[in-house]
Design a protein that fits this description.
Chain lengths: 114, 113
């Protein structure tokens, strides 16, 4: 049973527009969420995270929104650039008493067209 | 600054052959270490994690094993590879403290033929 779901396997956006990547989770014990970006044949790189005590975290062009009641988070990229084309993974963790094991979604492939 | 190394970068091995992938971390001490696999078209599957030397936890039963002979060294092994072991293997580390971000190595592309 998938605890972290990224229901859109792919997304195509025009350069300069907003990219919105979505992620849903089922485990109410998750209280820390992360987004990673992955280029082909490379390891994922950490982008941005958010704790469940917040509903928004912003870092430059990247903003993550968390809706705890809906068990939903999203990553907004504004403005989108061709270099943002990659696979984006959402991950979650329940920090209370855990060993720090992230649960990853299956990823969304973002294509930003010039 | 911390860096994580994995080798080899690519590997082609016949079915039934042994496997050894190595991961080392620099610039940190007593990290949590992780092995993940990304199979074609799938997400990141946690295989093993380690919180210290000689301490290994397995997340998925399989013909792979892991060892941590030194604080910053993590090894993924198999005695006999299967075709289904093909994939992209990633090592990651997390430091001590309240931050939960894991940092990944460059990965090893394994093809079992």
């Amino acid at each position: 049973d998938q605890q972290v779901k990224q229901n859109s396997p792919s997304l195509s956006v025009q350069e300069g527009r907003i990219s919105i990547l979505n992620c849903d989770y089922t485990n109410s014990m998750f209280d820390y969420f992360l987004w990673y970006k992955k280029y082909p044949a490379e390891g994922p790189t950490f982008l941005i995270s958010i704790s469940s005590i917040k509903d928004k975290n912003e870092d430059g062009r990247f903003t993550v929104f968390l809706n705890k009641s809906a068990k939903h988070l999203s990553l907004h990229i504004v403005p989108s650039q061709p270099g943002d084309s990659a696979v984006y993974f959402c991950a979650a963790i329940g920090v209370g008493g855990s060993q720090g094991n992230l649960i990853f979604g299956k990823g969304t492939k973002l294509s930003v067209k010039p | 600054s911390q860096t994580i190394h994995q080798w080899p970068a690519t590997l082609v091995q016949p079915v039934g052959s042994p496997l050894s992938l190595e991961c080392t971390v620099e610039g940190t001490s007593n990290p949590n270490l992780y092995w993940y696999r990304q199979a074609a078209g799938r997400g990141l599957q946690l295989l093993f994690y380690s919180v210290g030397i000689g301490q290994i936890s397995s997340e998925v039963p399989q013909n792979l094993s892991a060892s941590r002979p030194q604080d910053r060294q993590f090894i993924l092994s198999s005695k006999k590879l299967l075709l289904s072991d093909s994939g992209f293997y990633l090592c990651a580390w997390r430091g001590e403290g309240p931050l939960y971000e894991q940092y990944f190595g460059p990965g090893t592309r394994l093809t079992v033929t």
